[in-house]
Amino acid sequence: MKSAMPKFLSHEFNLQYKIKIPVIQGPMAGGLSLPPLVSAVIKNNCIGFLAAGYLSAEVLEKQIIEVKHAANGLFGVNLFMLDNKKAADYKKPEIITKIEKKLKIPAQKKLNFAVNEENDKKIDIIIKQGVKLVSFTFGLPKEKWIEKLRNNNIYLVGSCTNIEEAKAVENIGLDALVVQGIESGGHRSAFLKMNDEIGLFSLLQEVSENIRIPIIAAGGIATGKGILAARILGATAVQIGTGFLLTRESSAVGAYKKALLNSYAHNTIVTEKISGKKARGICNKFVTELNSAQMKALPFPIQNHMTKEIRSLSQKKNKSDYLSLWCGQSVHLIKKELSVEEFLNNLKVEYLSAANNFSLR
């Protein structure tokens, strides 16, 4: 039972799972956290994450099996906590129809899409396949899920964008907390209607003074110095997304990677127009056109479904104009495409050097 498990991210935990540096590969939904990337992270003695948010239970199981066959180590599965919605209840915004027409995308006659996360099925698969780590985004897990996962010795991680969400995660008894600063790429993990635009270091200081469970810092961390700074401010580990997008094992298309390598912090923007939920990415032609139309975004993930055909076509053509180019504010600190091994080795060297220099002062 739970009492026999070492505390998450403790020294005993790191020894048991052979974790070498306190880096977690962030789960990136939409086909970006696929088994080749997760497996490479595990092979390099860090924690990888599959992103199950947009996956069916069947596809998730296939991905878990693929990772297990490729690598032996700790990895997790990230689940979305969403309310059920039906796309049939919403009309496609005019600007999206206009862009589809311009790109010669056939109009969808019916929108049958419904949000059904299949989380009960996914949790059964996670238990069946022996996954030992689960994280939750966009909300809190149901009590029945917590109990079921705990009974199978599975570590549970929540996420927050403010102190109120942090307290909510701790109060339901999860093992650790991802603290997401506004610098972070991709979707804001917010689930309470409060300020979710706090910088990572401000939020880290507040959360570390009020929360007892281990903290995982996320948002704008791309170097060893960033890891050390986060740890000094109370984080036990860090979660990185953008840095892994620019690895050879990443499934991001060439146009996506090229756009990242040519971007700076001021090129990024937080927008809800692509998916219906606030997310940080590069301000490309897609974002500009959606913003100029003064469109009110539909709820997530309905809006995400509405823009899917546009993004899919852009991906097939390997063009970045109409992709969702999610990335964090430190994108400019990543200078070139590397293997996962090279990227993590660089982080380790930078981190140890920064720690040594800091201790000498």
UniProtKB/TrEMBL annotation:
Q: Which reaction does it catalyse?
A: 3 propionate 3-nitronate + 3 O2 + H2O = 3 3-oxopropanoate + 2 nitrate + nitrite + H2O2 + 3 H(+)
Molecular function, one GO term: nitronate monooxygenase activity
Q: Keywords on this record? A: Detoxification, Flavoprotein, FMN, Monooxygenase, Oxidoreductase
Please name the InterPro entries in this protein's record: Aldolase_TIM, NMO
Would I find Flavoprotein among this entry's keywords? yes
Tell me which Gene Ontology terms the entry assigns under biological process: response to toxic substance
Identify the cofactor(s): FMN
The similarity annotation says: Belongs to the nitronate monooxygenase family. NMO class I subfamily.
According to UniProt, the name of this protein is Propionate 3-nitronate monooxygenase
Organism of origin is Fluviispira sanaruensis
